[in-house]
Write a structure and sequence with these properties.
single chain; alpha/beta; TIM Barrel; eight-stranded parallel β-barrel; two-stranded antiparallel sheet; globular
């Protein structure tokens, strides 16, 4: 319901993860017996987690490790992996440089041209680990890299930008025709990012297999501050899930909704699924893994922009192995480890046997959920008050 914000202007109230809570169900289920399976066409994943296509999070070895654990990691073809034969040297310059000079360092390193042979090489290296391979690029490079990725054996192709629409107007260059492009792709394609019902519905109609939801919620992203653009993830996910359900009733074709960014811990992730997400894309939680190439640092995907960077380098630290972060045992008290355990326990508590059942969970508006009874945690900055 919209509220008046001034004379003749109304605005809709939107919600983020801290403002809602999930209500326990009338039955409960053994967490060990719930089903977290997520599928994309013929591909199936026991772990409905996707590692973000960020250079500080995903490289070939990380993608291989994530795949072997049952999840999916997306390699950024617009980043250092396809620009440098030895990308670890470029990453070292970013993480070791003076924080005040990071923007200049990143912009300089990303001016190096993308090399098509490296695109194929990285995909082939991931496939050698016998795991699904997903790669990402911006719309301007989609046609060029889409053909190369398919030829090299990629399993999923992601076309991702700050805000993606089915109708992009430009005179200076030829916009990507998603409908035409998707007809040339034989592998599943994810499109993103989007945050509105209408926007998502039009992207589904182009033939997309999945949509990424979120504009500016990532820990390293500054889009909301630079552009003032964004919708809190709870509302954005609910709206896109409604578009998915409408589109499915209309056509019989199911398009997965993937909440991308803004989830700090297991509780946020569980809320994302309850809001309608089929899978989640996570960056900072996986940047903490020992396998992450950034060594505890990561930076936003729009950071390298030559004139209007929308990201920053942040330090999240290295807290454990990827397996620990996904499956535990958790050695931290802030909900950042054993994310799968958090998800399955939440499902059991609510009484949801599947992700689809979890999407029907009762949600309440509860801004006090983060602070009620937590005075000692707040004073001592532990548990839920840990930053």
């Amino acid at each position: 319901m919209a509220e008046w914000i001034g004379i003749g202007r109304r605005a809709r109230r939107c919600y983020g993860f801290d403002e809602i809570a999930l209500v326990p169900g009338t039955i409960s289920v053994n967490p060990a017996e719930v089903d977290t399976l997520w599928s994309l066409r013929e591909l199936e994943f026991k772990v409905p987690f996707i590692a973000s296509a960020m250079d500080g999070v995903v490289d070939v070895s990380f993608a291989s490790a994530m795949g072997k654990l049952g999840g999916l990691a997306v390699l950024n073809l617009d980043g250092v992996q396809a620009r440098y034969e030895h990308p670890e040297e470029a990453i070292a310059q970013i993480i070791e440089g003076d924080v005040e000079q990071t923007t200049n360092i990143v912009q300089r390193l990303y001016k190096e041209p993308i090399k098509e042979p490296l695109v194929s090489k990285r995909i082939e290296e991931i496939k050698q680990a016998k795991v699904p391979c997903a790669v990402s690029t911006i719309p301007q490079n989609a046609e060029r890299f889409g053909a190369i990725a398919q030829e090299a054996g990629a399993d999923i192709f992601v076309v991702q930008s700050t805000v993606t629409t089915a109708r992009h107007i430009a005179k200076a260059y030829q916009p990507l025709d998603f409908g035409k492009f998707l007809k040339t792709m034989k592998i599943p394609v994810m499109l993103g990012n989007c945050v509105t019902y209408e926007q998502g519905l039009e992207l589904m109609e182009t033939g997309a297999d999945a949509l990424l939801v979120g504009v500016g919620p990532g820990a390293a992203c500054t889009t909301r501050g630079v552009l003032g653009v964004g919708v809190p993830q709870v509302t954005a996910t609910v709206d896109l899930a409604a578009a998915r359900d409408f589109y499915y009733k209309k056509t019989g074709r199911y398009v997965s909704i993937v909440t991308d960014g803004g989830m700090r811990n297991g509780g946020d992730i569980c809320k994302a699924f309850a809001c309608g997400s089929d899978a989640v894309m996570v960056g900072s939680a996986f940047a903490k893994a020992k396998e992450a190439p950034g060594g505890g640092y990561h930076w936003g995907m729009a950071y390298p922009h030559s004139s209007l960077p929308r990201g920053t380098r942040i330090y999240v630290g290295t807290t454990g192995t990827l397996e620990q972060i996904l499956f535990g045992p958790a050695l931290t008290d802030d909900g950042s480890q054993n994310l799968m355990g958090a998800l399955t326990t939440c499902m059991g508590t609510i009484g949801a046997k599947t992700i689809k059942e979890l999407q029907f969970t009762e949600i309440i508006i509860a801004p006090s959920i983060q602070t009620e009874g937590k005075i000692f945690q707040q004073v001592q900055r532990v548990g839920m008050a840990r930053k």
